[in-house]
Amino acid sequence: MSPKLTSPSAVAAMLVAMMATPAAAAADYVQAPGSSLVFATKYDGEVFTGRFGDFSTKLSFDPANLDAARLDVTIRLAGTATGNDDRDSTLAGSDFFDVAKFAQARYVAERFRALGGDEYAADGTLTLRGVSKPVTLTFTWTPGSPATLAGRASVKRLEFGVGGGDWADTGAIPDEVAISTRVFLRPAR
Q: Does any domain span residue 16?
């Protein structure tokens, strides 16, 4: 026989028990094969794209519990490819990514917002070339097997010292670089 909630003390005891129940944790995911992370910009008015060949994503995410969400992406900068060998070696050099000194970049987000429907924003910090700056990733979330995070962001390259020296001219290369990603995710084990 279940107890009746007729007395104030019984109601108070039930409320205390409910509040003591821990909040649901977000589901944990890791990157699955087939994921991509690309950028697009211009050089002398010509659009070109590049692909980061090696990156790793860890995500804790539940649309019903955004307070527990966390995104952690590590990007290996060596091997970034644009389809042009000269440009690729220039990007790896000290004026751009300086991969000999800064082998990887990292993006970490711990603040998430619902934008409506299946769209969200992750407010995080990008660390590139030893500089950390806020970057917002807007993305759509598609649950499933695998789950899919498809996102986009804009990064001001000069804030990170990317394309310094003679390359700082925004007439040749714009300051803003468009980033897009499509990450397939499977449950972490």
A: no
